[in-house]
Amino acid sequence: MDFLLAPGPRRKRSTPPSTVPPARRSGDESGPSPHRSTFRPDIEGLRAVAVLAVLAFHAEIPGLAGGFIGVDVFFVISGYLITGLLVREAVTTGRIRLGDFFSRRARRLLPSAAVVLAAVAVAGAWLTVPLRRTDLEYDVLASALSVANWRFVSQQTDYLAAGHDQSPLLHFWSLAVEEQFYLFWAPLLAVVVLFAARAVRRGRAVRSVVALVTGALVLGSFALSLHWTEHAVSLAYLGTPSRVWQFGVGALLALLPWHLLRGPRPLRLLCGWGGAVAIGWCVVAYDASTPYPGLAALVPTLATAAVILAAIPGRGERNVQGPYGVGRLLAGRAPRAIGRLSYTLYLWHWPVLVLAEARLGALGWPARTAWTLAAVLPALATMRWVERPLRRSRTVSELPRRGLAVGVCAIVLPVALALVVGTATLHLMGPTTPVDVKGLPPGAASGPSLLGAAGTSGPPGASVASGASAGDGPMVPNPAQARKDFPPDQGCQVAPEVTRSPECLFGAVDSPDRIVLLGDSHAGQWFSPMLAIASQRGWGLQELVKQGCPLPELDVDSPQLGRAYRECGVWRADALDRLRTGPKPRLIVIASLDRYTEDDELLAAAWEKTLKPLRAIGAPIVYIEATPVPGSDIPACVSGAADGAAACAFSRADAVPADPLARRIAAGAVPGVRVIGVNQVLCPGDGPTCPAVRERILLYRDDAHLTNVAAVVLTPRLERLLTEAGMDPVRPSGSG
Prior knowledge:
This protein has two domains: 38-425, no CATH class; 460-724, Rossmann fold (3-Layer(aba) Sandwich), CATH 3.40.50. It is built from 29 helices and 13 strands. A hairpin with a 2-residue loop joins β12 (693-694) and β13.
């Protein structure tokens, strides 16, 4: 977001600032509009509204869940101010000096951001666990290089969700969006101005041509925003192309002759107050369930435009607000003071909140509010000793290359710190290369309690590893490897937006016999064991797995898509139809997270809708009981567990509730389906907790899924459980 203001006073003046340009271009009969060079104290106050909304949202103050729209307000303000500055320069001088423009931005914005990034890089090394530290240093790199939004998009971050362990630099996505926009926008304007000025040397013509280009970009970007909001919520919210239209709306305010179209003062008063009320309504009415940006973003965007438009002065007007305009309120001393602090306050508040939670644990909204207020202190210090001196320095501002040099230094400092801290941390954690499971033959990487007869698990806690091991040798995988220890199924766990799985045949793909693995990602975690069992018999394995999609026929929402998960129903129907019409499998293995609904009756009915067509196929069906869900990032915890991995044990009651389908199968209420489970191994004994590590095996790759290593070493146990359940897919004599 941009916090630059048009040139003008920050204190009261005895005379209004000059609105006459230093020179008028030949043939420009109208001259630049007066409002484009006049300082707007109401906009400074509007920035205060925007930053306070964002702060309230992040502090989780009840009733203000829509405060995220403050970012939209900033985008419109930025488009209005910066485009106005650029076009005014083009009209008065005939060109846009890109070196001057980027030099001003570099010296005003980057040093303050660099201070925050450097502080986060250093504080993160002290306040966060090693695995989080490496993630954080990558975030510092992305933020310093103004690509943070794409890093978070690549992680499929849901910005509106109150998830676990959010990045202290997540808010830098908006700064990255703005920098990327102006890296494109300023050169584009320079080119458009160059051709327009050569064709017709009139300032009005220049503004008209730029307005047409802006209008086209606004329409295209808004259409893209609607499409992405429907199909990829993270990309829609964090992606630069889907946000361009909001800058463009502000730009149109600076380009079009609104000073001739504003209408009478009562209409302007209504416009201004209507916009302010609409912004307030969005803060109160919107929440994480609001599809965003999409159509919902029109309200705060146009409302901000209305507030700005209401106070655009016409010729000869010094104050169009009068005593009753919303701009009069926004131009008050307190809003303007907050507005001047808004940039550094925005930079500091989120790292303070996240790092405080990393040290103290989850905080309630009163504590979050207190920590947000505490961020005012470093924000004031940064504004006073970094932002203002560099902005006012004649030495730095004298030549564009000096401002650019300051910007380069502001990028290099946090990048260097991130590389040093991140490299050292990775070295301490050990290799990050994938685990070679072929080098972990059953029995070599785990003891008898993991691979012994089904139902035996050893004494409670006897096999919980502490630190590196419960015996000799390192933990496998180490925390850094665990993060990437996925089943080697080559992308067959299809993404939320996909409605049909590829063939995904493995092992003996030409064999008429095959095992089918069907379900969500909790079924996908059993890929390696099922492939080993199938391969031993000369069979194939077909994987039909979709991320976040319940196998029972439930209507759910997709956090990644930010709406009803319609693709899930389409995929499920397609998968069942393929099984019904294709070759008959030798065994169908199903699994699914059991937490999509808490309504057991609804879940039972949904399972029956899925199991009925599966039973009609005539193949044996086995359900693998839902595995424990720790609910916290296990690899991160283990990486920082000074007292050993035993400190990362988690609550049995929360992680392993009774599985409704497993209970019904065991009671004989679900004919044609058998159930097996390994929870007595993953969570042994009757104690209140479950281990994160057993016998040198780090069991979980995140907060819910098993590592592939854990699944591999459980293969013999799964095979024995299938045999005991009477469903062992024994290879027929004489075959293969």
